[in-house]
């Protein structure tokens, strides 16, 4: 399955996601995501367009924490 993360993007900013299974560790790994519910997975940041934007995160673990990365 996939988890949908939706937010208001800023034009020209790049967005990606990182995840971890343990909040007490500092290791956050890049997460595969798609730009649509059934689209191909990627880890390359996606560019915002100033509108609502969704990342569809691949859920690989039974319990996982995610965070949005803005560059």
Please explain how this structure is put together.
The chain has 71 residues and is an all-beta fold. Helices cover 0% and strands 46% of the residues. It is built from no helices and seven strands. The strands form two sheets. Strands 2, 3, 5 and 7 form a four-stranded antiparallel sheet that branches. Strand 2 (14-20) and strand 3 form a beta hairpin.
Rg, alpha carbons:
12 Å
Following the backbone from N to C, one meets helices and strands in this order, namely EEEEEEE
Counting DSSP H or I runs of 4 or more residues, the number of helices is 0
Could you say which structural class the secondary elements and strand pairing correspond to? mainly beta
Shape: globular
Runs in which pLDDT lies below 50 for 5 or more consecutive residues are: none
- Estimated share of beta-strand residues: over 45%
Q: Which percent bin holds the helix content?
A: under 10%
N-to-C terminal Cα separation, in Å?
Answer: 27 Å
Number of strands: 7
Biggest β-sheet: count, sense, barrel? 4 strands, antiparallel
Question: Would you kindly provide a brief summary of this structure?
Answer:
This protein is 0% helix and 46% strand.
